[in-house]
Design a protein that fits this description.
This protein is mainly alpha-helical. It has 23 helices and no strands. It is 69% helix and 0% strand. The radius of gyration is 22 Å and the shape is globular.
């Protein structure tokens, strides 16, 4: 597990706000270039570590600046017998910017017969859809593996690609398909010219379609505000499955329902098991004003654990709102997982004004935080400055 130094813990409590304010500024070109140099060196050191996990982290960063040996290392990891390392290789290749990253992953997927690999790949694509893999995902919908098919449909419903409307219509209306596939088919039509028909199809989903289909229904209805969808969401709040209840609650909160919003905040702050993480992750599908309000209340009222805090930060990747308060909370947090996820968020959003805050973590004692800081700096500045460096 990641650990943060005692020195940082004590220092944060005393002077964190002052440090944060001073470092939330854009860098001069020479400063940025030097940070890239330091970040690449950190990645190289990680690549030479005895820890496989550090090696994968370092390789993912170096691939983004064109390192072919690191790319080959990740490709070799796709066939690793250690499933954790296989999953690390898959996730890393899905997120690198190097164009060969996706290409080698696609080629491997075309050739392998490893069922575990396909499960991991489909699951990763469901959590981070790729428009450029839609052709491959369409074939996965025909898989006999229900897990693979489910996650392929989840990814396809959330992606944009030629022929999507026709494909989703066919799957949603095909009564020979399983209920979950049909539910995702209707969900994928939200935002298209067939949205009205899709909502009609969604509202025809009954409880006997199963809990998974009802959860998709609850999520999808949150994207179409009408009397009919609000009425159905009220019914889903009383579902037997808590995941369905939370999904419906989040959709209601997205419509401005105050009771649902307060209930969602309560679950994030005080819920048990996986419920807080699921509730926090649901923020990503709400409008910016609602997410900002909920986030502000959570930061003021509550002590969030690792899972909930990181999900909250993840949900902000594409939120078009000011994340200053969230960064101030996360960069100075005593929990290393939350601090690391904050660094990821700044890198993922491209918020270069926080480069100094990130750069100060390149020497952190926690290798996970060092790796994420290195990744974020390369993501922010590597494309511009790495080609001019000789390290």
């Amino acid at each position: 597990m990641l650990r943060i130094s005692i020195f940082i813990l004590l220092l944060v409590a005393a002077v964190s706000s002052a440090i944060f304010s001073a470092s939330s500024v854009a860098l001069e070109p020479e400063e940025a270039k030097e940070l890239v140099r330091e970040a690449i060196q950190v990645a190289k050191d990680l690549r030479e570590s005895e820890s496989y996990y550090d090696q994968y982290a370092g390789a993912g960063i170096l691939v983004d600046i064109g390192d072919k040996d690191s790319l080959q290392f990740l490709v070799d990891g796709l066939g690793d017998n250690d499933w954790v390392l296989m999953r690390s290789a898959i996730d890393t290749l899905l997120t690198v910017r190097h164009p060969y990253g996706l290409d080698v992953l696609y080629r491997y997927a075309e050739q392998t017969t490893d069922a575990i690999f396909m499960k991991f790949l489909s699951e990763s694509l469901a959590s981070r859809p790729r428009d450029d893999l839609s052709e491959f995902l369409v074939r996965l919908v025909e898989s006999d593996d229900e897990w693979v098919k489910k996650h392929a449909m989840q990814s396809l419903a959330s992606s944009e690609y030629p022929g999507k409307e026709q494909l989703m219509t066919e799957l949603g209306n095909d009564q020979n398909q399983d209920p979950l596939t049909r539910a995702y088919g209707y969900y994928g039509l939200i935002g298209t010219e067939s949205e009205a028909d899709a909502v009609s199809g969604l509202l025809s989903i009954t409880d006997n379609w199963g809990a998974d289909a009802l959860e998709v229904l609850a999520v999808a209805l949150g994207q179409h505000n009408s009397d009919g969808t609000r009425s159905r969401l009220r019914e889903l709040r009383a579902a037997n499955t808590y995941k369905v209840q939370i999904a419906a609650m989040a959709s209601q909160a997205g419509f401005g329902n105050e009771e649902a919003t307060e209930a969602l905040i309560s679950i994030i702050a005080k819920g048990k098991g996986l419920d807080p993480s699921v509730a926090a992750a649901s923020l990503r599908r709400m409008d910016a004003a609602t997410v900002t309000t909920i986030t502000a209340e959570l930061l003021e009222c509550c002590e969030l654990n690792s899972d909930t805090g990181t999900r909250l930060l993840e949900s902000w990747e594409y939120i078009d709102a000011d994340p200053t308060a969230l960064y101030e909370w996360g960069f100075t947090h005593k929990n290393p997982d939350i601090k690391m996820q904050t660094v990821w968020l700044a890198g993922a959003r491209g918020d270069v004004e926080y480069a100094s805050s990130i750069g100060s973590l390149l020497n952190d004692k926690d290798s996970g935080i060092r790796a994420m800081a290195s990744w974020a700096i390369v993501r922010l500045y590597g494309e511009k400055y790495a080609p001019s460096l000789s390290i």
